[in-house]
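User: Run a structure prediction on this.
Assistant: Running it now.
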Amino acid sequence: MKRKRRAGGSRGGQQPARPKRSAEKAAEEDPEDSASENEGSENEGSDGGSEVEVNFEFFDPCDEDYHSVRDLLKSGTWDFADPNFSEMADSVAGQGNIGTLIKTNAETEEETVCGLLSIMNLRQFGHLSWPKAIADALRSRAKRHASAEVAAKLDSLLAQKGSGKKGEVGLLLNERFVNLPPELVPPMHSALLDDIEWSCTTPDCPAEERPFYLFSDFVGVSRCTSGGRDD
């Protein structure tokens, strides 16, 4: 489902529950701290360094973000699964009702997508190849690295089908530049919860589509290093 909602806009003509908004990387300071930091910045400038202010904005995914989303996914945590990243990016960019992209220099030639957070229902996109590739890779990793109990639980989750009231399993996609300010993460997650609630309750979402968003469980991966090797 697609919906028209830009940074600071409303959802489908209704009152916005949590408008996606500009998030400047600038902390509120008292005048004394600000003065001493400015003084420090001037000193840094004299040594050749400089301080750059960057504005980050939250946006709903849209078709025009396809290439940026594909690049983030391809260079992120899912390389071990080797899914069809083109299909996957098309699914993420086409799901405008759930998910957030963080951009800088939005709507200019220098626009950059530097982070994304979304939830995808593997069953909803089961007609494509990437959900099976993801599920197979997760099962394979669990079999190699997890206990038999955990592997069995994951296998059960991936095979789970919603009842129409609850029980859907969501795949968490969380990719961002390593130097993205951490203070942007909490509002991204808050927006994601709002997106799910909106999709489950709004009449703007087709009735036959709403059950896919009745999530009871989430599955995701995080890159970690063990013994000098990424797993």
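The CA atoms of residues 93 and 141 lie 27 Å apart.
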